[in-house]
Design brief:
heterodimer; A: about 130 residues; alpha/beta; Rossmann fold; 5-stranded parallel beta sheet; 4 helices; 5 strands; globular; B: about 450 residues; alpha+beta; Heat Shock Protein 90; 5-stranded mixed beta sheet; two-stranded antiparallel sheet; elongated
Chain lengths: ~130, ~450
């Protein structure tokens, strides 16, 4: 059984590039183009790992998706790799009530990701 | 504290004023009074022993001594009650001026009344009140000056109070002289008031215009930055996709392809990389806000803010039995900051110190002034930072290995935010650390003093 990876990113070309890399390394790849669809797909398919873009539609949509994943009983232990853009402006309001300082993701990686590095990071987070 | 700042005017009524400036004027008024008292005393010594004027020196000295005591009270009020409201300050300054005018009238009376040109000293108060007080209030003080002086001359003329003469000239009962002197004096007082107030009006108006234009410039500059950031982002996404695609193709099919093709693809990947670097620089540039004049700063009571943050963070410290010490080396320092910014900086650093310090450790938060720098020092006995990480901890998303081990979750955004905020005020953040011994973060803000 190959491990299943869900990529949530609104840049379809980037998704295809990562799909190529990950599939040739023997993973099964599914994808979603926005946070909502990503959450639905995650619940329906129970992926082994989620790759999540930090900035889809809004500056921090990825962060909200990550929170919802962590609050879901079924998904809360799924490792998340967060993709961030180069030199990204983090539109953070450091609101202490929201406690955004503590983000429940395993790893941050900067786009563009080197294919070998992507495979390595995915394997590490899957315990392979 | 001698730092002055201007709160963007709370209404056009007092565009020249805020509490700190007034407090400063009060301090200035107290200092000037010491000098005036000493000066007047020395002058009477000269008058007594060199010019041998025959005036009641003991009354003059008694008056000066009383004024000295009153000035002591002013001084104590200023030292003991540093933070009083704006209007209280204004009232206090009015009281200063009125009492001064009364004492000056007494001194003029004992020093020869109309015969002694010291009555020109009234003009100091006329100028001062015209600069400081809003609206038509200065005319009230000017009228008080004219009334006091006329009253003094009148009671001496009528013989209600004795006239102490210098020149034996009987000037005080010479109607023509009295009329002339009072008329010229009154004109001088009102014209001086008018000139000062007209100048202040022009000054206030120009300040408003400048403030307004400044605001527009800030807006325009922000707009430009927003566009810049947007454009950079839009440029970036396609390049990221292009580079990722090429790299993926190379990684997956590179071994099956003609080496010439592989070489060409590698080159395009390198070029895409170059372009990303350029965009990165552009973004970096758009982010540096140091050149933008800050608009929303207000005079923040530093001690209050720091105590508040420490009180809130001490909950977490207590949980970990960490001793959190606060040492503030100044009393009433107000400095212009955006409150949220300064709070974020302090909270982030103090919170980090607590999070990365093991149980029963110690944290010391110190605030002091060094020349024109406001310095915050946050020292902990925590896990420390390895030398190789020292440079990187301020970059976004970076978290050191030992930090990850100690605390699971953290974006690595806190310190980069601290750095950005501090630098936007022209300040610096530095860190000194030894692994397993602790870290010291030092934040230095330059204080504008005018």
């Amino acid at each position: 059984m190959p491990k299943k990876i869900l990529i949530i990113d609104d840049d379809i070309d980037l998704v295809e590039a990562m799909r190529l890399t990950l599939e040739s390394a023997g993973f099964e790849v599914i994808d979603a183009q926005d946070g909502l669809k990503g959450l639905e797909k995650a619940k329906a398919e129970s992926p082994d790992l989620i790759i999540l873009d930090v900035m889809m539609g809004t500056q921090d949509e990825g962060f909200h998706v990550a929170y919802q994943i962590r609050q879901d009983d079924q998904l809360k232990d799924t490792p998340i790799i967060m993709l961030t853009a180069v030199g990204q402006e983090t539109g953070f309001s450091f609101d202490k009530d929201k406690d955004e300082d503590f983000l429940p993701v395993e790893e941050f990686i900067e786009k563009p990701v080197d294919p070998h590095k992507l495979i390595e990071i995915v394997k590490v987070n899957l315990g392979m | 504290m001698d730092f002055k700042f201007r709160i963007p005017s709370p209404g056009e009524l007092f565009p020249f004023l805020d509490t700190s400036i007034l407090q400063d004027r009060l301090g200035w008024s107290v200092k000037l009074r010491w000098m005036a008292i000493i000066g007047y005393f020395l002058a009477t010594m000269g008058a007594k022993y060199l010019l041998e004027f025959n005036i009641p020196y003991h009354y003059i000295w008694l008056t000066l001594f009383t004024l000295l005591l009153i000035n002591c009270v002013y001084y104590l009020i200023q030292k003991l009650i540093p933070d009083i409201s704006f209007f209280a300050e204004l009232v206090l300054l009015s009281i200063h001026i009125i009492i001064d005018l009364i004492f000056l009238s007494l001194l003029i009376h004992f020093s020869g009344g109309i015969e002694n040109p010291v009555y020109l000293f009234y003009l100091f108060h006329v100028v001062l009140s015209s600069i400081v007080f809003p609206r038509r209030l200065p005319y009230l003080f000017s009228t008080l000056v004219v009334v006091l002086f006329s009253l003094l001359i009148y009671v001496e003329y009528m013989g209600i109070l004795p006239h102490y003469t210098i020149y034996q000239s009987d000037l005080h009962i010479n109607k023509a002289a009295i009329g002339l002197i009072i008329t010229v004096f009154a004109i001088t007082v009102y014209v001086t008031t008018h000139i000062c107030m007209t100048f202040m009006k022009i000054y206030r108006h120009s300040k408003q215009v400048i403030d307004h234009q400044n605001q527009q410039l800030i807006e325009a500059s922000k707009q430009k930055m927003r566009f810049f950031r947007y454009a950079s982002h839009e440029l970036k996404s396609p390049i990221v996709a292009i580079k990722s695609t090429i790299d993926s193709v190379l990684a997956s099919f590179g071994h099956e392809m003609d080496p010439t093709a592989v070489n060409l693809l590698r080159r395009s990947s390198t070029r895409a990389e170059q372009m990303l670097e350029i965009i990165k620089d552009l973004l970096e540039l758009s982010r540096s806000r140091t050149l933008i004049v800050r608009a929303k700063d207000e005079a923040i009571n530093i001690r209050e803010l720091l105590e508040e943050v420490v009180a809130q963070e001490s909950v977490l410290a207590r949980e970990k039995q960490i001793e959190l010490k606060l040492d503030i080396r100044f009393n009433k320092l107000k400095a212009p900051f955006n409150k949220g910014d300064l709070e974020k900086v302090l909270r982030n650093l103090i919170n980090n110190a607590i999070r990365y310090t093991p149980e029963k450790g110690q944290i010391e938060v110190k605030a002091y002034l060094k020349k024109n720098l406001l310095v915050f020092k946050i020292k902990d006995t925590g896990i420390g930072i390895a030398e190789k990480d020292l440079q990187k901890i301020f970059s976004e998303f970076y978290r050191s290995e030992n930090a990850k081990k100690m605390v699971n979750f953290g974006t690595g955004l806190g310190l980069s935010l601290v750095k950005q905020l501090v630098e936007s005020y022209g300040g610096t953040v530095s860190v000194y650390s030894k692994i397993n011994k602790g870290s010291t973060f030092v934040v230095r803000f330059p204080l504008r003093s005018e």
